Amino acid sequence: MQETFTIAQLQEIILNHKKAGKTIGFVPTMGALHAGHISLINKARAENNFVVCSIFINPTQFNDQNDLIKYPRTPELDKQLLLNAGCDILFSPTVNEMYPVKDERIFDLGGLDKVMEGVYRPGHFNGVVQIVLKLFDAVKPNRAYFGKKDFQQLAIIKYITKQLNLPIQIIPCETIREEDGLAMSSRNIRLNSVERNQAIQLSKALFFVKENAPHLSVKELKQKVNEMLSCYDLIKTEYFEIADSETLQPVDTVTPDKTVACIAAYVGNVRLIDNISL
Ligand code: AMP
């Protein structure tokens, strides 16, 4: 596996492989890699001849500076995991490489950024789109892989890719969970053991909703989830929403395969998100 730090060097390597007729699969990440990220690398490897992974903690998507400072960083372990997974290039640029001048672009995201995460993390998705477009431009992949774990992010990336007619296929990937159901997240390593025990309740609540969606109303489902989570002193729910999987707007009734239940909560000081398709 090669590691590059500059867009120029990255493009030089990729161009040679493109000339040889290879397809490029791209997995953008912020590092502190786990089995969820590696499942994206594996899918990219299975569907392309050449796999690029980027690790870049993007400052423009952090609305909370403390969250940026505390974001986990495990560069040596990341390299080992990518090497083992058969990744071809790791792109780890500096902030100056990606943002040589201030990025002032504001994107119209069709209202997808106005609900759920958008309410609690203003500007977050605009920052995500800024960096993803810069990375797409640097890598020019045939396919790019995004986890359903970040459901709203995936919807927004699909939208902007269509809006700008980018010749890139966006490939959604299933959420990988710990054995007890907790969705894998780089932030999980910041949980202490008491918080880790309570964190399971988020996925438990989502599994409960999936099981009961056929016979309870949306209102009842929301009430039950709030009751379930209020028993845990370290959990502070920001939102629990049942929404249309495409528009992300809240719904009053569940339509199988077209509805998603999404949750965001602090467990101690760690903010976690998760979702399930109903
Ligand atoms: P991040 O490093 O958190 O920006 O995540 C990079 C990519 O990995 C995003 O497309 C995420 O949705 C995806 N991802 C993160 N956690 C998981 C997971 N548990 N299962 C599947 N994909 C994930």
Summarize the structure.
With about 280 residues, the protein is of the alpha/beta class. About 40% of the residues lie in helices and about 20% in strands.
How would you characterize the overall build of this protein?
With 278 residues, this protein is α/β, with parallel strands linked by helices. It has helices at 7-19, 35-47, 65-70, 75-85, 95-98, 117-120, 124-139, 151-163, 193-212, 218-230; strands spanning 2-4, 24-29, 50-55, 89-91, 143-147, 169-173, 235-244, 259-267, 270-277. The chain folds into two domains: 2-173, HUPs (Rossmann fold), CATH 3.40.50; 186-272, Pantoate-beta-alanine ligase, C-terminal domain (Pantoate--beta-alanine Ligase, Chain: A,domain 2, 2-Layer Sandwich), CATH 3.30.1300.10. The strands form two sheets. The chain has a six-stranded parallel beta sheet, sandwiched between helices. The protein has a three-stranded antiparallel beta sheet with strand order 7-8-9, with helices on one face. Helix 2 (35-47) links the parallel strand 2 and strand 3. The model has no long low-confidence stretch (mean pLDDT 97). Adenosine monophosphate binds at residues 29-30, 36-37, 39-40, 146-147, 149-150, 173, 175-176, 183-186. Residues 29-30, 36-37, 39-40, 146-147, 149-150, 173, 175-176, 183-186 line the site of adenosine monophosphate.
